[in-house]
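Try this one yourself first.
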């Protein structure tokens, strides 16, 4: 079948490449000529694991092409997917549908009878009705259907999410179009992927409800992490303990600096805006947004507390900039909040990210970019892990201990091996790990164990292992200078 995808971004490009891999003939269209020229010359404008290979293979097999010319691309097309951006409207909280409506109008001009116009972008309930009205007004006699087919692609695993979906949701109220959608997704159905057929509005709600629920789950575990710190419990153990309950599930119970990305923040806000326009209050969604915003606003203070609330003049190395690992996407990344706060407190910031530094330059000022993680931490007064890139957990911390100025690490993703890092002599601050009040730690452990620094500047921690210091350990060390155990 012939598929036209309008909008070759993170979602449109992956969806187009995957549809072509399923055997369909796909044209990915985009108004950004530079992007299309790059794709036609063999380049890929975004980082998504496996995407370059998938695109290359399907271009070679003449199933995938790229164009800026929607009119020509629509000739003989069975489907026209709308996968353009739906960002939060400037100064508001609802989704900006300008591009969606513009593309719908453009599709209408060249659409042929039997075209199924599919909205893949995340759009508020009722947008399918608006798309249908736009096309109907422009082409009263056209035989077409407007369908909702939301995406559930996580950046960094988008191809696998498409090819092995938990489910495909098709929101369609027109039987002949439903049959065409079944043919489109037949290869996935044949591989036992659940294809769920719903009304169009239900499909639009499913997308927002799914993202809002996942965002709530993350805000929940982030608050439980704060609670764990206060009561000296380990949030990783709590997440494991509740996650074994099939009704809860372990996924998306990893605490961190707050969620980012191009979806959770804007989709939660858009759902709230749609609900408010129907005078329905979604207090749980509202609270999760507020909790996440507060977390990201306060994350700089949390980081500075590991340095005695004084980072002025200090060089802080930030490992990880993107909103999550395995992407180059910086949209709403928590690192932006962290760096802005540290710079405001007078810190110098050096940063490294395996994929995100090019995009990061559009968002950040006065940041020194390093060539790799070791280069980033050299001479630093402290290290912050802001994104859960696997390579950071695999670093040689003995080597790092020898090149940093102060052995302090704030792991905002809890990805580092505690024993390995503390054995290398680091003071490690994690999310949701036991933190004891100053007096409690002095009473309970008469001698706070801290790394002994020998003549060569090597760090070695006491034989008995070391306890994770309180989050304001530097203040503690100043007040109770501790000699090593030796
Ligand atoms: C977008 C939406 O933001 C998201 O809500 C939805 O779930 C999936 O589609 P994304 O793919 O990340 O997500 O958007 P983006 O990376 O911004 O790509 C959109 C593309 O559409 C861009 O390449 C842009 O050039 C293109 N576009 C935009 C058009 O081709 N025509 C337009 O009129 C507007
Ligand atoms: C999300 C949805 O997962 C996907 O289904 C939808 O189609 C698009 O939006 P994405 O935003 O790409 O995907 O990434 P995701 O893995 O969901 O992470 C979103 C944010 O939540 C990231 O900032 C991530 O760091 C954070 N997160 C995720 C946590 O803090 N803890 C977790 O346990 C999981």
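Now uncover the answer:
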């Amino acid at each position: 079948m012939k598929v036209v995808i309008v909008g070759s971004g993170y979602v449109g490009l992956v969806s187009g490449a995957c549809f072509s891999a399923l055997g369909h003939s796909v044209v990915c269209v985009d108004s950004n000529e530079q992007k299309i020229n790059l794709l036609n010359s063999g380049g890929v404008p975004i980082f998504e694991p496996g995407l370059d290979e998938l695109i290359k293979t399907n271009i070679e097999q003449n199933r995938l092409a790229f164009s800026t010319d929607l009119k020509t691309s629509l000739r003989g097309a069975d489907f026209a997917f709308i996968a353009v951006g739906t960002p939060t409207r400037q100064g508001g909280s609802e989704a900006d549908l300008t591009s969606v409506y513009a593309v719908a109008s453009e599709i209408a001009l060249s659409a042929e009878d039997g075209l199924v116009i599919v909205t893949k972008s995340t759009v508020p309930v009722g947008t399918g009705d608006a798309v249908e009205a736009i096309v109907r007004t422009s082409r009263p006699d056209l035989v077409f259907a407007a369908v909702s087919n939301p995406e559930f692609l996580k950046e960094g695993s988008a191809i696998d999410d498409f090819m092995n979906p938990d489910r495909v949701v098709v929101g369609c109220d027109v039987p002949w179009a439903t049959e065409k959608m079944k043919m489109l997704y037949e290869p996935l159905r044949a591989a036992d992927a659940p294809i769920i057929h719903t009304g169009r509005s239900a499909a639009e709600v499913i997308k927002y409800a799914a993202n809002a629920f996942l965002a709530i789950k993350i805000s929940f575990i982030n608050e439980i992490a704060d609670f764990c710190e206060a009561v000296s419990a380990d949030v990783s153990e709590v997440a494991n303990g509740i996650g074994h309950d099939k009704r809860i599930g372990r996924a998306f119970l990893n605490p961190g600096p707050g969620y980012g990305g191009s979806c959770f923040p804007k989709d939660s806000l858009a759902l709230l805006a749609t609900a408010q326009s129907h005078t329905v209050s979604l207090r749980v969604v509202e609270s999760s947004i507020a909790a996440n915003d507060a977390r990201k606003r306060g994350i700089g203070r949390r980081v500075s507390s590991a340095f005695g609330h004084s980072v002025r003049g200090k060089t802080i190395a930030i490992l990880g900039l993107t909103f999550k690992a395995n992407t180059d996407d910086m949209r709403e990344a928590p690192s932006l909040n962290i760096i802005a706060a540290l710079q405001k407190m007078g810190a110098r910031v050096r940063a490294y990210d395996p994929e995100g530094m090019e995009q990061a330059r559009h968002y950040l000022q006065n940041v020194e970019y390093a060539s790799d993680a070791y280069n980033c931490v050299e001479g630093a007064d402290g290290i912050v892990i802001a994104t859960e890139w696997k390579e950071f957990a695999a670093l040689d911390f003995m080597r790092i201990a020898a090149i940093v100025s102060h052995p302090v690490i704030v792991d905002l993703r809890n990805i580092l091996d505690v024993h390995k890092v503390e054995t290398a002599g680091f003071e490690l601050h994690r999310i949701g790990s036991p933190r004891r009040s100053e007096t409690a730690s002095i009473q309970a452990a008469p001698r706070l164990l801290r790394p002994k620094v020998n003549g060569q500047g090597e760090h070695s921690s006491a034989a008995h292992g070391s306890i994770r210091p309180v989050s304001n350990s530097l203040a503690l060390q100043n007040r109770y200078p501790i000699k090593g155990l030796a």
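Discussion: Residues 200-231 form the longest helix (32 residues). Confidence is low (pLDDT under 50) at residues 436-486.
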